[in-house]
Specification:
The protein has a four-stranded mixed β-sheet with strand order 1-7-6-4, covered by helices on one side. Strands 2-3 form a two-stranded antiparallel ribbon. Strand 6 (about 90) and strand 7 (about 95-100) form a beta hairpin. It has four helices and eight strands. It has helices at about 1-5, 45, 50-75, 110-125, and strands spanning about 15, 20-25, 30, 40, 80, 90, 95-100, 105.
């Protein structure tokens, strides 16, 4: 989690990752920084009153931030949070997203990163 936070530092204006609290990490327990925000699935009710164009714009912004983060994780260092379901994504004030739950993190080798890049390019065709 701390390593991923470092790798995503350049996106910190739009994506946040919790960090472990030094001295409060053991084999059985890890305390991390608190992330404020609304779970992605609860956002629908919060914005129900907005015009459709505003909801669409917000959805595109959230998707862009999450996509940039996962693109950087997977294609950059190859270390990524492998449990990216909506319950692990918070939307914060100003539209920034927080990515939670690093219990399932995976490391891709160069060959796997290249194969993933090929897959993304093939989907774009």
């Amino acid at each position: 989690m701390d390593t991923i936070a470092q790798h995503l530092q350049q996106l910190s204006h739009s994506v946040r990752v919790p960090r472990s609290v030094p001295g409060l990490v053991s084999q059985r327990l890890m305390v991390m920084t608190y992330m404020e925000g609304l779970p992605l699935l609860q956002l629908k009710d919060k914005v129900a009153h907005l015009p459709q164009w505003k909801k669409d714009k917000a959805a595109r912004g959230i998707l862009k931030r999450v996509s940039e983060a996962y693109g950087q994780m997977i294609l950059g260092e190859g270390l990524f949070q492998a449990d990216g379901h909506p319950g692990n994504i918070l939307v914060q004030q100003g539209g920034r997203v927080a990515l939670l739950d690093y219990g399932q993190s995976k490391q891709l080798g160069e060959e796997d990163k290249a194969a993933f890049a090929d897959l993304v390019l093939a989907m774009h065709k």
